[in-house]
Amino acid sequence: MKKLLQVDFDFSGPFGDEMASQMLELAESINHEPGMIWKIWTENQISQLGGGIYLFEDESSAQAYLKMHSARLEKMEISNIRGIIFDVNTRLSQINQAPFMASQ
């Protein structure tokens, strides 16, 4: 069963285009993580938050990524990391054109 991972953390920037430029290599590397289907990068400059929403093939892939990613963020001196894994209700998600439905 596919799993959605929501991660957010305290983040002071960079944001926007500067973030996109600085994080390009990281973004490309995420595509090679086992079980990862897609990621939506999230940021809120006003609240000083960064994060992402990920879709994984299964629970074990999502758990492994969350563990690895949390350790990576801690090495970058990022704190207050929150990660939650959710089940996906595909029936209801289909009604609302969820982006992962094409990969089912």
Compact overview of the structure:
With 104 residues, the protein is of the alpha+beta class.
Enumerate how many helices there are, as a single number.
4
Runs with pLDDT <50, length 5+? none
Mean pLDDT: 92
Record the strand order, biggest sheet: 2-3-1-4
Named CATH topology:
Alpha-Beta Plaits
Instruction: Report the sheet-strand fraction.
Output: 25-35%
Number of strands: 4
Q: What is the annotated CATH architecture?
A: 2-Layer Sandwich
* H/E element sequence: EHHEEHEH
| Shape label | globular
CATH level-1 class: Alpha Beta
Percent range of helical residues: 25-40%
Largest sheet: 4 strands, antiparallel
Q: Structural class from helices and strands? A: alpha+beta
Radius of gyration: 14 Å
Q: How would you describe the overall organization of this protein?
A:
The chain has 104 residues and is of the alpha+beta class. It has one domain (9-103): Alpha-Beta Plaits, CATH 3.30.70.100. The protein is built from 4 helices and 4 strands. Strands 2-3-1-4 form a 4-stranded antiparallel β-sheet, covered by helices on one side. The chain is globular and about 40 Å long. The model has no long low-confidence stretch (mean pLDDT 92). Keywords: Monooxygenase, Oxidoreductase. It holds the Pfam family ydhR. InterPro entries: Dimeric_a/b-barrel, YdhR. This is Monooxygenase.
